[in-house]
Specification:
By secondary structure, this protein is α+β, with helices and mostly antiparallel strands. Helices cover 20% and strands 17% of the residues. It is built from four helices and five strands.
């Protein structure tokens, strides 16, 4: 009867002497793994134009059906260097499983996953987890 009690106390006191594993997030942040797959970004070329040619490969391969895009012709090559760009590009992070297949399938390397894991949004509802092209572009909001 006293044996199990002493065994439990030994385990408890053993953990009291060990350093804490708790991270005081958001004041302290852990380092993420090198190959961590976080937030998506749409890449720009060296001229500041979008690399995405709206081929739809990322939308087609997404197992969660989280990506929607519509292409538009660009005869003046204002937005893209191939004559077509994604006028509408949306990722639903409520559906996304962060598998990275969209990145692997892109023939132009236009979509990339960063190590950013802070995707929380204010307020209830999943509408805040649907991110449009403006949020996904590489240079958004002065970042």
């Amino acid at each position: 009867m006293i044996g199990p009690l002493l065994k439990g106390l030994r385990v408890t006191f053993g953990h009291l002497l060990k350093p804490s594993v708790t991270v005081k997030y958001p004041y302290e942040k852990r380092e993420v793994a090198e190959r961590y797959r976080g937030r998506h970004i749409l890449k720009l070329d060296e001229d500041g134009r979008e690399k995405c040619c709206a081929c739809g490969m990322c939308e087609e391969i997404c197992p969660a059906d989280a990506i929607k895009l519509y292409g538009k012709e660009d005869p003046e090559f204002k937005y893209s260097d191939v004559g077509k760009y994604a006028e509408y590009y949306v990722i639903d992070y409520a559906r996304c499983i962060f598998c990275g297949l969209c990145v692997d399938s892109c023939p132009r390397g236009a979509i990339e996953m960063t190590q950013d894991y802070e995707l929380t949004v204010p307020g209830p509802g999943r509408i805040n987890l649907i991110k449009d092209k403006g949020w996904l572009l590489e240079k958004r909001g002065g970042e």
